[in-house]
């Protein structure tokens, strides 16, 4: 029995947590596919409801796609910590020698790979229904990529705060949405600006800076929230 | 001489209710601390608080003379916890669960297969935990303890759902652990028959 109290490497622990969650997602594909279907449905029903006028579709496309993406991300956040909380594996992670923010970051990484990344990949298909030109699609994917990273991590704070509550869904949305507003506004607006041929560097820089800020804060906030909610 | 693990003046509240007041104990290598009490007397809460999941109202726990609150990660590196809820993912197989667990902790030298063999769950290796019986899942949770390099075992009702052989196995494992200089804190209703120094705390 060793007396030195090392803990496993941070990166190894991060990867172990992410790998476990990806494995779980692989075994329960429904949890991944549900938000994706939701995104695709909202975004394809909209053109049908608005009508086939090209001008209208091109005008509303970026906004609708971005709002649908934000709601789909919210939908996927509920389950982030609930099952770990219910089967006791959250307790086990809390008493492991690994620093809790590392575990939180690992979970967010897996969450983004199973929610944000699929959204980014599916978005061009959906964008076609809004008659979005290919060069605009590229920018839309970049804004979604940066935006969903922020949303995953922001959401993990909300999910951690509401994990001990029954039916915390509404509360989770209320907590996350205000902090997610800048992402939605800058994301949708940047895509609109590309479509009208204006400069977009500012919007992209903002989204990237916001993502970096959230990546550096959210794991610690999530860790603190988990300790409180799991009492 | 100070004990390896010492707790002084512990008081714990759950909501408005005081579970215990001014509880003291000290534990040294090779010793077992048995928590006894009726249902709802606070055994599990004490266990959770020792593991750092609940805050004590007052009191302090020292490990090697250092406050556990201030050196939380270091303390967590020396303990492993078998709780009432097993903490296993039901969709993953037994091996996937244990591999994940052992990446978060320091591994003991014990071989994977030897541990599973000893616990009688080797042939269930590739099955999802969902399809195992409650007793078998309990054995998987025990495998987690054997695969970790922890000195301090926290065990909450470890023999629940286990058959007679299983109960004997738990007693043997704890005896061996104490024999190696390990320590154990256990909450149990059933008779505990362990070789080693046993202290009792009534809650």
> What order do the SSEs of chain B take from the amino end to the carboxyl end, as H and E?
EEEHEEHEHHHEHEE
Average predicted local confidence, pLDDT of chain A? 89
Helical fraction of chain A equals over 70%
* Span between termini of chain A: 31 Å
Largest sheet of chain A: none
* Sheet/helix structural class of chain B: alpha/beta
- Give the largest interface: A-B, 32 and 37 residues
Low-confidence stretches of chain B: none
Range of strand content of chain A: under 5%
Q: What is the rounded Rg of chain B?
A: 17 Å
Rg of chain A, rounded, reads 19 Å
Low-pLDDT runs of 5+ residues of chain A are: 1-5
Polypeptide structure, described:
The complex is a heterodimer of chains A (231) and B (203). With 231 residues, chain A is mainly α. Chain A has one domain. Chain A contains ten helices and no strands. In chain A, helix 3 packs antiparallel against helix 7. The longest helix of chain A has 29 residues. The N terminus of chain A is likely disordered. Chain B has 203 residues and is α/β, with parallel strands linked by helices. Chain B has a domain of 63 residues. Chain B is 30% helix and 27% strand. Chain B contains six helices and nine strands. Chain B has a five-stranded parallel sheet with strand order 6-7-8-3-9, sandwiched between helices. In chain B, helix 3 packs parallel to helix 5. At the A-B interface, helix 1 and helix 5 of A face helix 2 and helix 3 of B.
